[in-house]
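Weekly modeling sync, notes
Attendees: AB, CL, MP (scribe)

Item 1: holo prediction request
CL wants a bound-state model with heme C before deciding which constructs to order. AB pointed out that an apo prediction alone won't tell us much about the pocket. Agreed to run with the ligand included and paste results into these notes for async review.

Input as submitted:
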Amino acid sequence: MKWWPFLLLMALLACEDRETPKGTFSLPEIPANFPIPDSIRFLSEQSIHQIELGRALFFDRGLSRDSSVSCASCHKQALAFGDGLAFSIGAHGGSGRRNAPPLFNLFYPQLFFKDGGIPRLEEVAMAPMDDHHELDLPLQDLSLRLRTSTFYVDEIKRIYNREPDPYSITRALMWFQLSLVSANSRYDDYQYRDKKEVLNAQERRGLDLFLSAHTQCASCHSGPNFTDFQFHNVGLNMEAHLDTGRARITINPADFARFKTPSLRNLGFSAPYMHDGRYSNLEQVLAYYNGGGDGYPGQDARIKPLGLTEKELEDLEAFLYSLNDSVFVNHAAYQPLGGSQD
Ligand code: HEC
Ligand code: HEC
């Protein structure tokens, strides 16, 4: 007789088991006021299946010709999906030309890459696949390789009702990347959860400076992701390593050395900074802005000597670090199912 509550519980659990979708993926908590498309905030079961497939692909070294690197080799969760290097190391040990950016909040409309050369998120994966220094395994070849894996054949059949092919691979990778939501920094508590006490006096002074007409930081680093998604030339000297930036795509001389404004979220995890990783810490970046830039041709007029004191620079830095999201870099659902990461 005394067993019945236990049996009832078992029966309930068994029921729940049948109804729960196979998926194990869940997003980090998202503040109610945080601007994010509903298709991400309220993921459908189909989206969850795509995310889980994309996650398997993202961490799979089989995506590179010599099976030595995966997307995650250059985009590591602990580093907000950057890689901590000025230039990444790809297949065959080759070195790239730009700093790998951290990946999060990719659902905002934008062009991808620092020069905006890629218009759609589902197309981004093809660039490292084609690059001999990165994955070096073009999408067609990868499709054929995945057709020899029962795991991918079964999953792609179940989710897309087709064989592993460029469509299914790029869509799944896109969905995993769309799922990378960073909205749990202390600044987000302050701004979107209305917990004004979360930022201390120093961080609030830094925020005021950041928003001020004097620094003009927020004129380019604007909006919820701290970027206007536009291209600007902040005047960095490029004698050592020329990169024409946005002009590489538009062939317009006015776009010379303009780069996409990076988000300022998660800077505490994503050093080194700038398109070529030239600055290894935030003090150096702030000293650069405070000094008024290198004055390289085409430098934006907003970059000018600011005359900030040591204390003001420390305040600004403290504010920027309040945008670190430790929930994001530890969120279990962004890790490969089987355990260890690259
Ligand atoms: C060898 C290192 C390397 C590998 C492997 C790699 N990436 Fe990247 N990734 C980079 C670099 C470097 C950039 C910056 C390129 C640029 O701006 O010109 C980048 C840029 C991106 C961006 C653009 C982000 C933005 O804000 O514009 C996305 C998205 C991305 N990678 C996703 C992926 C995916 C998905 C894979 C696996 C299919 C992958 N990467 C594999 C190094 C790598
Ligand atoms: C004219 C637009 C503009 C203004 C004003 C501006 N920035 Fe930037 N910022 C950029 C661009 C563009 C980059 C990327 C440059 C590159 O990759 O070479 C950048 C890079 C950065 C980086 C490095 C981020 C990374 O991930 O590499 C930090 C930090 C930063 N800015 C903070 C600030 C602060 C603080 C201010 C105000 C003092 C400021 N910015 C003013 C456009 C601007």
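Recorded for review: Residues 114, 215-217, 219-221, 232, 234, 236, 259, 261-262, 264, 267, 270, 273-275, 285, 289, 300, 302, 316 surround heme C (ligand 2) (CB under 6 Å).
Action items: CL to compare against the apo run; MP to circulate these notes.
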